[in-house]
Amino acid sequence: MISVISLFMMQVYPDPVRVVAIGKNVDELLADPDNENWLSISSELCGGTHISNTREAKAFALLSEEGIAKGIRRITAVTTDSAFKAIEQAQSLEQEVDAAFNIDGNLLEKVVASFKNRVDSAPIPAARKAQIRAKIVLLQNEVRKAQKKLAEENMQKAVKIAVETAEMASSEGKAFCISHVDVGLDAAAVREAVVRVMEQKGISAMVFSTDETTKKAVVCAGVPPKGNQGKQLEVSEWLTTALQPLKGRCGKGKGGLATGQGTDASQIKEAMDLATSFASLKLDQ
Predict the structure, then answer these.
(1) Does 257 lie in the same domain as 178?
(2) 284 burial via Cβ count (<10 Å: 0-12, 13-18, 19+)
(3) Of 8, 53, 218, 274, which is most buried with the most CB atoms under 10 A?
(4) What distance in Å separates the CA atoms of residue 61 and residue 82, rounded to the nearest whole number?
(5) To which H or E segment does residue 176 belong?
(6) How far is Cα 260 from Cα 263, in angstroms, rounded to an integer?
């Protein structure tokens, strides 16, 4: 009995059992089993299948290392063709991730979103997986930068169009304006456009924006809380009416503002016409 041999709790070994040692010949361990020098080497009991020479493995890929119980770790690795396949798959994935650094805008966001699940489930070497994940984090940072830039551009675009429309409406003596901007479903940009109109022009405003991919629409309405407009034109009622052709709905609103979303953007013209006629009726215009 070799006293320093490693044993694992709950592990069942055959009888007789194979002894594997790294650093010394097993016969030497058996000849002097109590030698404390053996503490510096690895000697294990193993009932698995082994190769006579590492050359037979051809390649080695460590896929994972995880805890399965207190004090017990599990290592999963492959050799030969399976190892080559794991290494090739890692190279292919990493090339895709590297290529993604040249993608701009919304396309990058969609590509990066697909990477995480693919890498997590891929049977590739653990070290390469960690490297690829680090690159994905960098890509996610680029996505956030692109999103921030797009949000700023959308806000500027929506505000510009809405204010210009309000100026034209004011010059015609109207107490409200209806605008259609192209910022997708960016509710923050649409809302900011309405707020700016009320602040700068002091009139009621409703701003529509649609998304061609989802066929949805986002709408925000605002009525200045001061003056007679708020008494004559109730913002939630106005927006609810406008959302009917879009098959949408909205909340009660707050502070003279209300936002809603519709699922049928194809009816945007009908919705804008209905919003115009409703406001004209309420404001006697």
Answers:
(1) yes
(2) exposed
(3) 218
(4) 8
(5) strand 176-181
(6) 10
Collect all residues with Cβ–Cβ distance below 8 Å to 22 and sequence separation of at least 6.
41, 42, 43
Q: Is residue 235 within 8 Å of residue 279, measured between CB atoms?
A: no
Strands 204-211, 176-181: parallel, antiparallel or unpaired by DSSP? Answer: parallel
pLDDT digits (tens, 9 = 90+) for 98-123: 999 998 777 888 889 889 889 999 99
Q: Which helix (H) or strand (E) holds 152?
A: helix 126-171
Rounded CA-CA distance 280/93 in Å is: 59
Q: What is the pLDDT of residues 218-241, one digit of tens each?
A: 999 999 987 666 568 899 999 999
157 Rama sector, left if φ>0, alpha if ψ -120 to 50, beta otherwise: alpha
Q: What is the domain range of residue 34? A: 1-50
| Token pair of 26 as six digits | 């097993």
- Two tokens, residue 121: 């489930």
Residues 220 and 128 in one domain: no
Token pair belonging to 112: 């990066």
Q: Which two tokens stand for residue 214?
A: 């989802």
Please name which of 234, 223, 230, 232 lies closest in space to residue 198, comparing C-alpha atoms.
Answer: 223
pTM metric for this prediction: 0.68
In a domain, residue 127? The reply is yes
